[in-house]
């Protein structure tokens, strides 16, 4: 009975391997959420470990699924960070270049020394580098280099087979160890917290303003509405009142049982009930002028909306905020409209008189629908918030990225390529940057981006664990733990050295930025995913994107170098 049940389950899994994929995610996130002291494995690492354990069923998921999941993850990361990435390029990125180069050199020296000490052949050494440094491309460049040695076909086949063995044994810890070092060890050595430093870096980008969560609001709203019963004999028009107290607008008037239009020439009389909307400080000034505040009045409810508008009116480009607001045209337009925020390249800009407008700036305004429509036509185009993803835009982005990944440039017979991951990352950065300049296209909800990142990365490592775990387990069982332990050193030692190099030589002060750079320099995508989770925002992405692109080149070059020096 038990054997029949086991065979039935095994047959079902072979026909539906996706069951193990989702089981790896479910159990992996459950295990990853367990906290022991300050240590927490995280969902990505947990999914990898569970997938390795489930690989004993001998069921693998098609490699194409792995490629699709990783492309979705890395494209979403790039898209989210495109504007900040291109804004941050400059002299400061030199330290990312040096960090990526240091990791590659330290990794090469570590592999060569250990291979000579433990008498590993060129094939095992190359596989050790590919798995311990989690750069699969090393297998390809090393295998090509082995063909140039002039050995017999039998010996060549043996050496190339050893590349695969070394990779399979060391890759699992290569991924897991990088997560532990980036998320747990780096903050301890730095004496800083990734989450705290990510918040600090984001606050600096926002010029000290607070970034609210999805369900958060300020307790004291800057713009509010009040109802007043006019007790003073002011006998002023709506426009006169709005000029007397700058920063308020009269939205509705009730006289007796009649609702009057609040046109600029309408006179305000004693006993009128008026709805006034304005900035908090202006409303305080209005109290003395208008009279006593009332709780409610029928027919005086007005719906206000917030709208993002992309600046397209070239008349205002290059002008300062004070110039635009004081122009005759804007003075006539701005009744009932309040400027809430201005964003450029995804960054919130300070609302001061020195600010100068550029095409593509995103202006957030607040007012009634009729007032908003009147002003939007003069500014540019409204940015419609939607729960739908613009797959015309993002499908093209993924296609472009994957095509870039197919491009191979040969330097002295060594193939240099970004690969699918590097191509998708570059495309994501470019399409994210383009979206920041043209906000009316390329919409994707924040929740959808997060789903692509979480499911893409965790699914990717789960497929890796299901595909390679059993082979690694069998090889360790046959050959002992020696190769596995050597792989642990290859994974850990270069990263530890890089942490001290980055802290004391390159001058990294922010743990979130440093963790992202370290993960990228090691081409450690699972580690980067956990760093993002710890950070809680996209702060680590800029440094990761730079070092990851470089690592795809530097680490790929290690294949023939290992073959040459071992």
What order do the helices and strands come in, and which of them pair?
Elements: H1 2-15, H2 18-32, E1 35-36, E2 39-40, H3 43-54, H4 63-88, H5 94-117, H6 122-132, H7 137-146, H8 153-190, H9 194-205, E3 223-230, E4 236-237, H10 238-244, E5 248-255, E6 258-260, E7 267-268, E8 273-279, H11 280-290, E9 291-294, E10 305-311, H12 321-326, H13 328-333, E11 338-344, E12 347-349, E13 362-367, H14 369-379, E14 380-382, H15 391-406, E15 409-411, E16 414-416, H16 419-437, H17 446-479, H18 482-505, H19 511-521, H20 525-535, H21 541-554, H22 558-565
Antiparallel strand pairs: 1-2, 3-8, 3-9, 4-7, 5-6, 5-8, 10-13, 10-14, 11-12, 11-13, 15-16
Helix pairs in contact: 2-3, 2-17, 3-8, 3-17, 4-16, 4-17, 4-21, 5-6, 5-18, 5-19, 5-21, 5-22, 6-7, 6-8, 6-18, 6-22, 7-8, 7-22, 8-17, 8-18, 8-19, 8-20, 9-19, 15-16, 16-21, 19-20, 19-21
Kindly describe this structure.
Helices cover 60% and strands 12% of the residues. A hairpin with a 2-residue loop joins strand 1 (35-36) and strand 2. It starts with a helix and ends with a helix. It is elongated and about 105 Å long. It is built from 22 helices and 16 strands. Helix 5 (94-117) crosses helix 19, helix 7 runs antiparallel to helix 8 (153-190) and helix 19 (511-521) packs parallel to helix 21 (541-554). Strands 6-5-8-3-9 form a 5-stranded antiparallel β-sheet. 43% of the residues are buried. The chain has 566 residues and is an alpha+beta fold. The longest helix has 38 residues, at 153-190.
């Amino acid at each position: 009975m038990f054997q029949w049940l086991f065979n039935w389950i095994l047959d079902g899994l072979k026909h539906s391997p996706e069951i193990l994929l989702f089981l790896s995610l479910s159990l992996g996130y459950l295990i990853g959420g367990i906290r022991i002291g300050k240590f927490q494995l995280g969902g990505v690492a947990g999914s990898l470990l569970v997938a390795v354990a489930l690989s004993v069923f001998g069921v693998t998921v098609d490699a194409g699924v792995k490629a699709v999941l990783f492309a979705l993850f890395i494209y979403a990361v790039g898209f989210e960070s495109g504007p900040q990435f291109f804004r941050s390029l400059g002299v400061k990125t030199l330290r990312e270049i040096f960090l990526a180069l240091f990791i590659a050199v330290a990794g090469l020296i570590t592999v060569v020394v250990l291979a000579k000490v433990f008498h590993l052949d060129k094939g095992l050494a190359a596989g050790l580098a590919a798995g311990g440094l989690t750069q699969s491309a090393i297998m390809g460049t090393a295998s090509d280099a082995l063909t140039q040695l002039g050995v017999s076909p039998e010996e060549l086949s043996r050496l190339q087979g050893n590349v695969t063995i070394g990779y399979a044994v060391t890759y699992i810890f290569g991924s897991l160890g990088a997560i532990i070092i980036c998320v747990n060890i780096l903050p301890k050595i730095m004496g800083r917290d990734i989450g705290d430093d990510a918040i600090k870096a984001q606050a600096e980008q926002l010029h000290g303003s607070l970034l609210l969560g999805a369900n958060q609001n300020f307790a004291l709203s800057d713009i509010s509405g009040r109802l007043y019963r006019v007790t003073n004999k002011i006998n002023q028009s709506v426009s006169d009142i709005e000029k007397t107290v700058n920063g308020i607008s009269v939205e509705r008037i009730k006289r007796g049982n009649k609702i009057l239009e609040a046109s600029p020439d309408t006179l305000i009389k004693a006993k009128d009930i008026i709805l006034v909307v304005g900035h908090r400080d202006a409303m305080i000034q209005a109290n003395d002028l208008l009279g006593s505040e009332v709780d409610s009045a029928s027919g005086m409810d007005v719906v206000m909306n917030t709208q993002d508008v992309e600046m397209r009116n070239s008349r205002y480009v290059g002008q300062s905020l004070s110039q635009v607001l004081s122009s005759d045209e804007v003075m006539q337009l701005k009744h009932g409209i309040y400027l809430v925020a201005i964003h450029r390249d995804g960054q919130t800009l300070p609302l001061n008189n020195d600010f100068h407008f550029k095409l593509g700036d995103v202006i957030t305004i607040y007012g009634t629908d009729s007032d908003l429509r009147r002003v939007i036509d003069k500014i540019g185009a409204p940015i419609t918030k939607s729960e739908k993803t613009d797959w015309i835009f993002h499908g093209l982005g993924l296609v472009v990225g994957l095509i870039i990944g197919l491009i191979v440039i040969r330097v002295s017979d060594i193939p240099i390529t970004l690969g699918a991951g590097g191509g998708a990352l570059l495309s994501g950065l470019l399409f994210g940057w383009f979206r920041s300049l043209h906000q009316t296209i390329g919409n994707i909800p924040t929740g959808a981006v997060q789903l692509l990142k979480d499911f893409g990365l965790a699914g990717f490592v789960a497929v890796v664990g299901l595909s390679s775990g059993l082979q690694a387990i069998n090889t360790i069982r046959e050959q002992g733990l020696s190769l596995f332990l050597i792989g642990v050193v290859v994974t850990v030692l270069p990263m530890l050295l890089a942490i001290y190099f980055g802290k004391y030589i390159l001058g990294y002060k922010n743990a979130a930025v440093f963790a992202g750079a370290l993960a990228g320099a090691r081409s450690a995508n699972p580690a980067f995913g956990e760093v993002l989770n710890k950070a809680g925002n996209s702060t680590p992405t800029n440094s990761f994107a730079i070092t990851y692109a470089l690592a795809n080149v530097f680490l790929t070059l290690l294949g023939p170098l290992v073959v040459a020096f071992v």
